Amino acid sequence: MAARADPFLTDVEVPDYKATAAMAEAARREHMVSQEVAVLIFTPWTCYVVMVLAFALPPPGFLSSLLAGASWIASLFVARQAYERHLRGASPVYKLLALMVLLSCVAGPLVGMHIEQREMASYWMHKNGVTYRDVAPTKPSDAYQDASILDFSASTRLDLQRTLGVRSPGTGMTYCIAPVIDVSSSSEHVNYFAADVNCCEPRRSFLCGDTAKASARTGVVLPSKSSVHAAERWDHFFKAAQQAAEVYGWQLPERPIFVRWFQDAEGVQSELLHQGLVETFVQCFAGLCAAVIVAMWLHWSLSYYVQDKKHADRGRAAASRYTT
């Protein structure tokens, strides 16, 4: 604490109250800045996380749509309240807060729907879908279009000598298929295919799923309508099956069924859930990092603008006094 000498009491130092007040004001301002930055970070991020969770994780249905809509409307309400406080003369920080919450209202639903389509839609379809057991590969696929899991009969095998991998120029992925056959039948009708991406070469080395396990006879159905992503993936597999039919002389049904080949279907469901939760956590953490960067940049820009405006006002005031 700075001090100045008293002219009458030379042995006593009197505190410099102006310096003390300046230090207190600086400490108060620093505390206020910390609070403002924290509000700019965590309020929009909380809205973002709530919307990501509401759009991504619940099972499909009316209640999940209602929850997602409610989270979005609540976030818009937060943005409106912040902007109204700014209009009533509160700190300009509230204007920035409204802007960041509005950005969250855009990013949150988009990220949540992305996770839902790529990860959670398949999980909920398999969890709530129909399981058929002792399915013979010679049975028409039309009878099992509502299936989520197919347990094939004991005579079922994959024909690994007649596989095909087709690389898509658009996605850069290789879509791999192998026919599911009944070793006791010589039929050239192929109703079911084991399928996956980036796990084979054009006509050999089909290593998708549990292909190497001789006891694996469970197919986790790849949905064709659960999401846009699923529909696009199914179309790629169907085109690969059509090319394979031309190469190997197969006969295809109108809608063959594509499955991921595994020994344990429950393990696949756990894997899908794990992937969805991990993706959700990663996106929420990425949102926090983005909120920190944007909030600090906006607050710094606002502080710089306010200081520059104060200097300009002081300059104009000094010029006005000089002219008068």
What would you note in describing this structure?
The protein is of the alpha+beta class and 324 residues long. The chain folds into 2 domains: 3-118 and 274-307, no CATH class; 129-263, no CATH class. 56% of the residues lie in helices and 15% in strands. The chain contains 5 helices and 10 strands; from the N terminus they run ββαααβββββββαβα. The strands form 2 sheets. Strands 3, 4, 5, 6, 7, 8, 9 and 10 form an 8-stranded mixed sheet that branches. The chain has a two-stranded antiparallel ribbon with strand order 1-2. A hairpin with a 7-residue loop joins β1 (3-5) and β2 (13-15). α3 runs antiparallel to α5. The longest helix is centred in the C-terminal third of the chain and has 59 residues, at 265-323. It starts with a strand and ends with a helix. The model is unreliable at 24-28 (pLDDT under 50).
